[in-house]
Amino acid sequence: MEALPKLLSESATIDPKLLEEMNIILDHPKLTRETTVRDAIMEVAAIMGENVKLRRGFALSSANGIVSSYLHTSPQPGLGRMVGLLTLESEKGGAPTEVLQRVGSNLAMHVVAARPLFLSKDHVAAKTLEAERDILKTQAATSGKPQVAIEKMVEGRLRKFVEDIALLEQKFVMNDKVNVKSVLEDLSKEVGQQIRVDSFLRVEVGEGIQRQ
């Protein structure tokens, strides 16, 4: 596919109309040539006998690292119902690509499985915390415990809530004895420089569509 605008390691939503104008090189038994994304979609629709549309588009890029991906429920290379994407950035650049890709692929799989909403606890939106705190206060109020105990209970459960939705705080799906932050610390030691996740993205087919 033609180069997308440089995004400085940030995930971005791309207008589907812009994507449709881009060229793509197809590698498929029935579709092997260079064409536009729009024409490729039309040909896929004709082959499947279904109405196929490009509904959403996203892009990630890395300045000093890699973009890793994981496809879930993948009938063939490059296709899947769910995808996890993330950028691994190295502090100095030049970190071994194969090492970054090995860990990056596992972390991308984690993104699919664990469904994080924010990168770190510092990125959790204030309104998200306040909404959850209100829910927890309402639940705790029926416990009959003293107010001091209720406040401690709420704050403890709120910390657990953050651990469940912030990527770096989540227990790693491949080893729940450590969190994602620890995985990155081990990777940094292995390559001799700091490695961080700069951005991530999880996309699932059909999400956001209201079903009747």
From TrEMBL:
Which Pfam families does the entry mention?
Answer: EF_TS
* Location of the protein in the cell: Mitochondrion
User: Mainly localized where?
Assistant: mitochondrion
**Where in the numbering of this chain does the Translation elongation factor EFTs/EF1B dimerisation domain appear?**
29-207
Which UniProt key words apply to this protein? Elongation factor, Mitochondrion, Protein biosynthesis
Query: Is-annotated flag, keyword Protein biosynthesis?
Result: yes
Gene Ontology CC: one annotated term: mitochondrion
- Look up the record and give one Gene Ontology term from the biological process aspect: mitochondrial translational elongation
**GO molecular function, one example?**
translation elongation factor activity
List the NCBIfam families hit by this protein, alphabetically.
Answer: tsf (TIGR00116)
Q: Which family does it belong to?
A: Belongs to the EF-Ts family.
Among PANTHER family, the record links this protein to: ELONGATION FACTOR TS (PTHR11741), ELONGATION FACTOR TS, MITOCHONDRIAL (PTHR11741:SF0)
Name under which the protein is recorded:
Elongation factor Ts, mitochondrial
Please state the gene responsible for encoding this protein: EFTS
